[in-house]
Amino acid sequence: MQMKTLITACCLIILIGQKAICQITITSADMPSANDTIRFSNANVSPGLPFLVSGANQTWDFSGLIATNQDVEPYKSSLQTPYAFFFFGLNKYGRKIADTLGVAAFSFTDIYNYYKKSNAAFEVEGIGLKFSGIPIPAYYSEKDKLYQFPLLFNDRDSSIFKFSVNLPTLGSYSQVGYRINEVEGWGSVTTPFGTFNCLKVKSFVNSNDSLNFSGFPLKFNRRTIEYKWLANGQKIPILEITGNLIGTNFTPTTVKYRDIPRSLTPITIAPVAIFSASLTTVPVNELVQFTNTSSGVLPTYLWTISPPDFALYENNTSDTSKNPTVSFTQAGQYTVKLNASNFFGNDDEVKTNYITVFDPTSVKLFEEKQSVYSFGNQFFMAPDWLKETQPVLTDISGKAIPAHLSGNEILIENQANRKNQLFILRANNGKEVFIQKVVGGE
Prior knowledge:
Elements: H1 2-12, E1 37-43, E2 55-61, E3 67-74, E4 76-77, E5 93-103, E6 106-117, E7 121-131, E8 134-148, E9 156-167, E10 171-191, E11 194-213, E12 216-230, E13 239-246, E14 249-258, E15 275-277, E16 281-283, E17 288-292, E18 300-306, E19 311-314, E20 325-328, E21 332-342, E22 345-358, H2 362-367, E23 370-375, E24 378-383, E25 392-395, E26 400-401, E27 403-406, E28 409-412, E29 422-428, E30 433-439
Parallel strand pairs: 2-10, 16-22, 23-28
Antiparallel strand pairs: 1-3, 1-14, 4-5, 5-6, 6-7, 7-8, 9-10, 10-11, 11-12, 12-13, 13-14, 15-17, 17-20, 18-21, 19-20, 21-22, 23-24, 25-26, 25-29, 27-28, 29-30
């Protein structure tokens, strides 16, 4: 009772030239509904943003944010989405969260989240996606509770989320993870959109995605942190700063805030090179996704990996891509350098021995009886059990190439026309995995 009296007194105080700051409560009424269309702006991640400040009666000043681009979030009734048949209901609504997701054979399009709002929570209850043009629903067996109501300062909650979906002819895709929300601050936040009384919510999200492709399991782990400033009646956060957590290091990657339509003017500043990797210790041929959060206007990029001979750019990326995907074909330590440049200058970030690559099959392979196999005019050693399997051959983009064994020779279609092309050979006997880089020859 005494605390409520103090909060009420705070709300009655009017400071000269300022609005009173008082603690608010966030409920389901402050969340988006079907047919809401909400505009937001994106800004560059810049040094000095006070997103780590927390506590009671704080003032967060982000008025210096400059929009780089704008977009809208339309929350559509399920009947207006491509998956209306699967998520049918007057109170069901969805939002497109991505045009594409995944790589190579595991590529999804038209990805929608479907939401449910109640007095207790705002949660994601399903996801719709298309695989090879086929619409597929994925229902959460454990819903992703984005917020649990009512939200008050010092509240802390946690929840798990889980779904799994079968992919026609190929395998399956599943996701499991957990979310921890903490209301770590309240006060006033200012952005170019205005000044609002708010609650600051920190969300830690740990997600594990599993892809099973013709018996070859692939697993990806993501650890992210979301800082969100919520205000009454605004539907989405007034401000949201998200990023990746690698070990104990948090790297912000996006800044997004509620906004009005604006005419955007380019900023004339030199870039600052900043990057991170999805994984820093990986087995041979595992994909590493580099995330580029460099600042600057219209920059160009150049990646340098040392030693260079065993680093392959995957998924149609290259050393000039903003966010390349790279695999490493030989064990060792690799130094990564990013150069960002534009008309106003350039900057380098170098991470020495940043990626450590190990070969999980090297010990077992020497224990197995081995034979000599050939691909074109290339010869290599492999376990005898390779003859009893159906090997899978992919090009550097991840596209599967039909292949078969004839004795100890690997044959593919149009072999004579694939001279000097690089391929990855994979085989699995149920216990061990064999991976070999091969080059097409005559």
